[in-house]
Structure formats: C-alpha cells, structure tokens
Fold this protein.
Amino acid sequence: MDEIEKTKNLINKFWKDKFIFKREIPLKNLFLEPENKSLQHIWNHGHADLAVFRNRKLISIFEPGGTRHLKDKKQIQNDILKYKLCRLNGVKCCHFTNDTLEKLKSKREKRKFLGSYLFGK
C-alpha cells in the first residue's frame, strides 16, 4: 500500500465517512486558472496526490513524498508554488515525507496532525 492510500485510510479510520477523496487529480481540475502568471505552470501541469472534500467542497490536499521533496531544488520550487495556489484558493496543503505518519507514535498524535489540515484554522 502506498503512502497516499495509507493517508486516506487513516483519515477514514479517524473520521469515518466524513470525507470524499480523489487521488492524483490535476490541479486545473480543482482550481480556476490563476491570474498570477507565476502559478500557471503548476496549475497546468501539477496534480494533487490526495484531494480531500467535505460537503462537495475541497478542503485539503495531502502530498506525501520522498526525500527528493527536501533535496531537489526544482521539486521544492514546485511544492512552494502548489502551496501558494492552494492558499490562494483557501485550501490547506500538507507536504510531508513518507515516514511522517509512522514517526508519530500514538493515534492521538496522528489524529492531531491530520485533523489540523482537515479542521484547523
């Protein structure tokens, strides 16, 4: 099972049937075209690993990833642009390394981490 599926399953475990999920969805299918020209490339070519909806509204995007998200300059820049696009549209975006959820020891820590992107301000 990949990290996207693990994240989805954990959210469903904590908050059964409260959310709808879409995997690997193009950003241009989630957001209107941005006026900001610097965001258009990510809008055209980027995707959301896990888009989370509640009451038919996109509320969060979860982006588990490998260490290249921390080391590769181009990947880091793309992640920053994706974050800006999400923020512009009032959607929370959570980039995290693949082992993040496993490093959180208790169910409570995992629930708090995920819940902050699903319910937090």
Notes: Residues 3-108 form one domain. The two ends are 31 Å apart (CA to CA). Residues 46 and 91 are 15 Å apart (CA to CA). Helices lie at 3-14, 40-45, 68-71, 73-88, 100-103, 107-118.
